[in-house]
Amino acid sequence: MSDPTAEARDAKSRELRGALPAGARLRGHEIVSVLGQGGFGITYRARDTTLGRDVAIKEYLPTSLAVREDGTMVLPRSTAQAEEFVWGRDRFLEANGTAYLVMALAEGETLERRLKRDGCLSQSAVESLLYPLLDGLEAVHATGFLHRDIKPENIILDAKGSPTLIDFGASRAAMAGPTTAMTAIFTPGYAAAEQFTSAKQGPWTDIYGLSATLYHAITGRSPPSAFDRMLDDEYQPLSKLLPAGISTGVIVGIDSGLAVRAEGRPQSIAGWRAVLQQSSTPDALATVALGKPADAATIMISRPHGATPAKPGRAGLWIGAVVTALVLVAGGAYLALSYSSKPVASIASPPAAETSDAREAQAARAAAEAADRQKAEAERKAEADQALRRQIAEETRRQIEAERAEQKRLEDEARQKAEADAAAKRAAEEAAKKKADADAETQRQLEAADKKTAEANETALRLSTIDRQHLQVALTSLGFNTGGTDGAFGPRSREMIAGWQKARNYAATGFVTAAQSQALMKGAAAAISRFDDEQKKIEDDKKADEAKKSISATATTPPKAPSAPEAADDAPLETKTVMATKVVEFSMNHHPCDDSATAQVRVFRDRVEMRFAGAWHLLRPDAQGRFGTGEFSSATSSYRFQITGTMTPRAFDVKNVNSGCTWHAAF
Which CATH number applies to 109-340: 1.10.510.10, 3.40.50.1000, 1.10.10.10, 3.40.140.10? Predict the structure, then answer.
């Protein structure tokens, strides 16, 4: 039976584009499923097959620089990005063209999932998160690393509620590579203002991210984006919300950690911890002493002897005073909040001679000086804010221009590649067409040469009419119907000869060789024998008919006068002019043969007389009705000819012995 949980994990893995499939192996580790995926890599759950334990493996796959091919290998997107990709990869364990980090597997659920389910956390739950994370961040900052992406999604809570900060270490430090494009690692709402610009980042950057995460855990919502706050700050401080059950130190610490400007936040985890650990709420009589700007800021709060604690309703006033003090601290290294049972040193009473007017003047001067200081501070802050806005606008413009330039470059590369591919395709097609045309022309020439050679070879055989008749009978009997057995090799007979040759894997020239002629005769010997028997029978029947006619004529014709000459045998039965058509296209010298040849024919009862080439020729048939002449010279030219034919059917061939041209006619 299949495991539904495993099937769900596999389905999720398939949905994550470019991830390694379940079952893939990495140097003694087997991929089980995908835990998460971001812009710089993919995190897998894997099994250490050597130690038999589950681990987490971080794969270096920055989607802006590289892409996976063939399901395994990771390659840079372009040669321009290869150097940055290799720089980051060198800080991991290499395999499959990329690199990996093998880490301990943190079991549990994310803080993000806990907050979605429960809404917010109690004071005890917040503190169980806060102090372990402070210890861990302080140790990591001491090594020179920053997390830069602290958020609920990157905090794992085990069954006891103990936190583990994930997506942290060389995978993030390596991303802070040689280009500014690789430093933009943040999530809006949890990222400090300096992460939106090229301003310096430090521990105060992670303090902002953790403060935003704690704010979300306490209020149930994330604070506004630092980018938006730089333009219009709508942040609601915890000192105004006063969440129930949350200590004063945590409230003050989170509000100070969420200061927009970096110098307004604690500059180290140690300084921040001092603020967060304060838990008492001073009363209205507390006094506040601020250290010099160059020193570590200190808030000293004390109560006189006998003073009573402030009522709970006045806690908001005290917190507001503390927050005001935080804003006024220059440098903002850290805040230390403490209480003392000893009163502050007493202030001497004014001299008795001091007049009321002097006191009023002094108070007025002090008020004017305070107003001037406040005005100067407001102007300075306004100028600083305006400068920051201009810097943000300029960097945003540059980033947009850079993105547009990169987009245009990619589009130009794609267009140039498409044009080059199209040109290469056209060139390949043209080359293929030229080659095909050349091959076809070569083949045509070869076939023409083969055909001429085959025609010359057939002419050299000097096939008689009866020989061609036998070949026509053989072809028809073998399934290649010539359409007749007149002994003339017209287009139909040539086509059938070529078909037979092709079926026997011979060159399909349409002209027979001596070996092919013998093969046809042998293969159709029975059909040829029947044809000869039929022709003999026809000839015998014809002779018998003629004999009967002769006897009948002798019996009915009165005897001739002795003086009348007997010329009946010399009278032709039929006289005609016959045009013979060529059966050979080209002479032995490859010259075209004449389309026709004309002969006068006189048919007698026992012979044929034919006038050709300027002279009469006597042609007497043999017992099979075949007749022919030897070679004879033309009376009008230097050519020599030969005539062959049959009486049944009436047909003859005239062949030019010199050129090989042959003509055929029926008469």
Answer: 1.10.510.10
Q: Would you list the domain boundaries of the chain?
A: 4-104, 109-340, 462-549, 571-667
How distant, in Å, are the alpha carbons of 129, 180, 239 from that of 399? Answer: 37, 10, 37
Check: CB of residue 201 under 8 Å from CB of residue 195: yes
Measured distance CA(486)–CA(472) in Å, rounded? 8
Instruction: Give the domain 4-104 fold.
Output: Phosphorylase Kinase; domain 1 (3.30.200)
Element (H, E) at 86: helix 79-89
Of 424, 416, 513, which Cα lies nearest the Cα of 471?
513
Report which of 229, 209, 200, 91 is spatially closest to residue 150, judged by C-alpha positions: 209
Determine the length of the chain: 667
Tell me: cis bond preceding 621? Omega within 30 of 0 counts.
no
Place of tokens 């709970």: 312
How far is Cα 631 from Cα 269, in angstroms, rounded to an integer?
Answer: 126
State whether residue 40 is helix, strand or coil.
coil
Under 8 Å between Cβ of 239 and 252: yes
**Is this prediction's pTM over 0.85?**
no
Report whether pLDDT(221) > 80: yes
pLDDT value, residue 219 = 94
Pairing of strands 337-340, 299-302: parallel
pLDDT tens figures, 374-424: 888 888 888 888 888 888 888 888 888 888 899 999 999 999 999 999 999
Tokens of 633: 């010279």
**Cα separation values, 304 from 99, 319, 382, Å:** 64, 19, 39
Say if CB 603 and CB 667 are below 8 A apart. Answer: yes
| Beta carbons within 8 Å of 596's beta carbon, 6+ residues apart | 579, 580, 581, 582, 663
b/e sequence 529-559, b meaning 16+ C-beta within 10 Å: eebeeebeeebeeeeeeeeeeeeeeeeeeee
Helix/strand/coil (H/E/C) assignment for every residue in 459-478? HHHCCCHHHHHHHHHHHHHC
Q: For residue 514, list its beta bridge partners.
A: none
| Residue 244 Ramachandran class (φ > 0 left, ψ -120 to 50 alpha, else beta) | beta
